[in-house]
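Fold it.
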Amino acid sequence: MSAPAAALTMSDQHREVLLRISRSQVAAHREVVRAAVLLAAADGVGNKTISTRHGVSATTVRLWRKAFEKEGLANWGKVAPGRGRKSTIPAETVARIVELTTKSRPAGATHWSCRSMATEVGVSPATVQRIWSDLGLKPHLVNSFKVSNDPKFTDKVIDVVGLYLNPPEKAVVLCMDEKSQIQALDRTQATLPMIRGRAGTMTHDYKRNGTTTLFAALDVLTGTVIGQCLPRHRHEEFLKFLTTIDREVPTDLQIHLILDNYSTHKHKDVAAWLAKHPRFHLHFTPTSSSWLNQVERWFRDLTDKNLRRGIFGSVPDLIASIESYLAASNANPKPYVWTATAESILAKVARARATLTEVTNQN
């Protein structure tokens, strides 16, 4: 009869880690059992007793002891090559699922679902979902994009990004745009507040109580916003907002205004006003490139935090809510940090255009 194995040598640090794992409520069951086995081995309990107590074979106890003596906890939780559960899905089936997902559509539909693919290939929906997840395939999602066809795209990108990364001295850089047709929406019934176990609720239908247009100019350096709600979206309102900017910005600073190509911004009356205010310098973003204007990010925050779930009985209520958000934002401004260089943007757009050309030629 062989002598019982000697107690497993274990440092206090390893013992503490294994104790924590053995008591865990979220760790994998196999890891919890393995930790308890090693702790028992460190206490001098025999392998046979350990195997009976914890429901594993004596061979498994010896293997775990040997691995700990050799590696400690360095490879804890890793499955050795060649071990673990083997895949029961043939590689040919996986390849067919990938081929169908990326290069075909089911009859009468725009994209594959787990169930339609499972029916087509002859596997379970869970198997399809697992393969898609492992390979990062998401046929139910589609991202939108548009590559600008502006003939001056390169020059405009270099101009705008240059202002972000290397702003001029004794000047303020403002990202300006209008959020038009903001609706004052009131719900048809009273909303219900959030309580434990239930989210807040509101009716899906609403009453329209008019609209307003928010003119906003984001200071790239400080994150503060000059904002003004006006009833319409014409060059007359734009001129009023330019006057507001002129009044708000210290007179000793030049004003570089980044904005889009909307015709209102190029009206002859606007040009005449700018001629009388030479400290204003307009920089236009390329067409279909609103992502270059940082104020769009601020508009998104305004929508998410103030407008989407707001209830407004009138346009004055809506304007008061917007002005309240504006004041709170300016009380604790957080500028958006621009990191992309003009070169990286132009390279990415060039790749997109090349891909579009290739796909167009194939079709």
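The chain has a mean pLDDT of 90.
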